[in-house]
Amino acid sequence: MAASKRLIVGLGNPGSAYDKTRHNIGFEVVEAIADRIKEPFTTKGQSRIAWGSWRGRPLGVCMPQTFMNRSGLAVEEIVRKSDLKPEDILVIVDDIHLDTGVIRIRGNGGTGGHNGMEDIADWLDTNQFPRLRIGVGNNYGRGQQAQYVLEPFTEEERLLIDPAIEKARDAALTFVTDGIVTSMNRYNG
Question: Residue 2 pLDDT more than 60?
């Protein structure tokens, strides 16, 4: 039996104005995965995507080019065209409820109020897909959340985020080869 195809989706906003911002941490992780599998991105439909393999398993890494809060349409398009099931997808997002640099992997669950995740759940008509959250902290004042997530990390935060990107990359690749349970056991906590 052939290994099932996996899709790693990093959420962010398109355009250089958003490069290296807290909200675009998902893009940074999938770029690190594409570097590891040595595959370039091409634009297909509403996403930048790189198809390749990791340790003999077929793998796509994707950056939706819709804005964050409209990521579901782009994800659904790839899922439909590639005949994927929700459990074959790992969505990588920023999380203000986790300390900077902390990662959490779950096999399914709620969206945690993350608009990009909510849009994906709406378009896929399920929230039963794996997700990897990367903490970006919550050092903002009342009413400043949107501004905070659209700002770049500070130099001090980068000391925590850069290793978290590598850890998230490795956790995502473990999901590809060994599944979500092994990835959770190895990388949570």
Answer: no
Q: Which of 6, 23, 48, 133 is catalytic?
A: 23
Q: Using CA atoms, how far apart are residues 148 and 104, in angstroms rounded to an integer?
A: 21
Q: Which residue has the tokens 């998902």?
A: 26
Which region, left, alpha or beta, applies to residue 32 given φ > 0 means left and ψ of -120 to 50 means alpha? alpha
Sheet holding 6-10, edge to edge: 42-44, 47-54, 57-64, 6-10, 89-95, 131-135, 103-106
Angle at the Cα of 89 from the Cα atoms of 86 and 91, rounded to 5 degrees? 115
Alpha-carbon Rg for the chain, nearest whole angstrom, is 15
Note whether residue 166 is domain-resident.
yes
Query: Which position has the token pair 């959340």?
Result: 145
What's 163's domain CATH number?
3.40.50.1470
- Known catalytic residue: 23? yes
Averaged pLDDT, 60-85: 94
Taking the C-alpha atoms of residue 93 and residue 9, their distance in angstroms, rounded to an integer, is: 9
Helix or strand run (H / E) with residue 176:
helix 155-178
pTM: 0.94
pLDDT band at 111 (very low <50, low <70, confident <90, very high): confident
Domain count, the chain: 1
